[in-house]
Design a protein that fits this description.
Blueprint: H1 8-21, E1 28-30, H2 38-47, E2 51-53, H3 63-66, H4 72-84, E3 89-96, H5 102-114, E4 119-124, H6 141-154, E5 158-161, H7 171-174
């Protein structure tokens, strides 16, 4: 994030080197928002990973608390830019358990689908240390099943939704 291009050239060079060594390997990258810099996003588009993943992380109303350096709309715009300017599969993830409500989750899913996000992951937030946000709620298995229904209703066909799901969870299954 501290580089002028947000590290886009590092992503591109890594993709290039993987393709040299193993041209048939599927490549998914998990990126920052590059501060919305379209030149940085164009570097990524030119490198053409198979999947571009940028996690939204949380609902809009909790964004400033959970991602103080981020911006909800900018994250959506990054996914939209990739989708509108390439044929790259887009992916995003959401954590639950920070205090969001169902209407906020539905809005987030609808926002992600509206910008062309192809793949969705949702998992339980787990507080990594005492310096991080506390868990507001642990979702039950039944609630995770309900989240799957909400994802379907929002239009997602490909998703991984369960307590221990993280960005790369079963990624190979979703991109087959």
């Amino acid at each position: 994030d501290d580089l002028p291009d947000g590290g886009a050239r590092h992503f591109a060079k890594t993709i290039e080197e993987i393709r040299k060594i193993s041209p048939d390997t599927k490549i998914e990258i998990l990126t920052p928002d590059f501060k919305g810099d379209k030149e940085a996003l164009d570097i990524i588009i030119k490198a053409h990973p198979d999947v571009f993943n940028h996690n939204i992380e949380t609902v809009e109303d909790l964004f400033k608390t959970a991602r103080p350096q981020g911006n909800y709309q900018r994250s959506l715009n990054v996914l939209k830019y990739i989708k509108e300017n390439s044929d790259i599969i887009t992916k995003s993830g959401l954590m639950v358990g920070l205090g969001e409500n169902e209407n906020q989750i539905i809005k987030t899913l609808e926002d992600l689908h509206a910008v062309g996000c192809d793949i969705l992951t949702i998992g339980q937030y787990i507080q990594p240390s005492k310096q991080h946000l506390e868990v507001d709620k642990y979702y039950t298995e039944e609630e995770f099943e309900h989240l799957k229904e909400l994802a379907k209703r929002a239009g997602f066909e490909k998703y991984q939704i369960a307590p221990q799901v993280r960005s790369s969870y079963n990624a190979f299954k979703l991109c087959a």
